[in-house]
């Protein structure tokens, strides 16, 4: 009889412990679901959506349940893959000064000192351009990774940039039919249009030889 009472008395704390674990999981699940729901709602109602409607453009929230829009051009940064291959990106495509423009809101992973992976907001702006060899403008210098170092086109572009130093103020990549630049933080109407203007000016002032040799690889 004593043994039965002792055994019965031990079930109470065990059941209480199981109950507490269940409560913790339920609360944690509720917090995650609320956070995830707000995240989805935030992306669905991203300001890109109203901007696309205003400009007669196309919006993609990156939310799997949304109908997918398809970009007509563009790549992601820094991965360089075709934008259409990354359906979870939040982007808007519209026309500006006679060119197609795409703005992307993204997150870039990085390692913190505590060896954990964190994410920081970044944005990418790009304009559609004709095919060309890959061109990079970094820290005020020109490089063309797919051409020999002493190629005539590379030499011409170096001279061109020296004569047009304002186009050395931002890092830019021209490849796969797009000229793109990027920056920290989420896209805003102000930085999206300012960067689009910068890239349109760049595309209009680059030497015509760059586009003529578009098939070079």
Automatic annotation (TrEMBL):
Keywords: Membrane, Transmembrane, Transmembrane helix. The chain crosses the membrane at residues 12-33. This is Secreted protein.
């Amino acid at each position: 009889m004593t043994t039965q009472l002792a055994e019965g008395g031990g079930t109470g704390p065990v059941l209480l412990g199981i109950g507490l674990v269940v409560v913790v999981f339920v609360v944690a699940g509720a917090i995650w679901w609320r956070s995830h729901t707000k995240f989805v709602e935030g992306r669905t109602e991203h300001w890109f959506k109203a901007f696309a409607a205003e400009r007669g453009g196309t919006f993609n929230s990156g939310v799997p349940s949304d109908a997918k829009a398809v970009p007509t051009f563009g790549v992601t940064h820094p991965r360089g893959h075709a934008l259409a291959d990354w359906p979870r990106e939040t982007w808007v495509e519209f026309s500006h000064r006679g060119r197609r423009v795409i703005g992307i809101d993204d997150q870039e992973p990085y390692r913190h000192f505590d060896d954990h992976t964190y994410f920081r907001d970044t944005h990418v702006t790009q304009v559609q351009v004709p095919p060309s060899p890959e061109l990079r403008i970094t820290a005020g210098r020109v490089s063309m990774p797919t051409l020999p170092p002493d190629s005539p086109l590379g030499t011409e572009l170096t001279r061109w940039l020296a004569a047009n130093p304002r186009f050395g103020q931002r890092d830019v990549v021209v490849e796969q039919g797009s000229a793109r630049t990027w920056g920290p933080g989420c896209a805003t109407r102000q930085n999206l249009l300012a960067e689009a203007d910068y890239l349109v000016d760049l595309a209009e002032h680059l030497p015509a030889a760059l586009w003529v040799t578009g098939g070079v690889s």
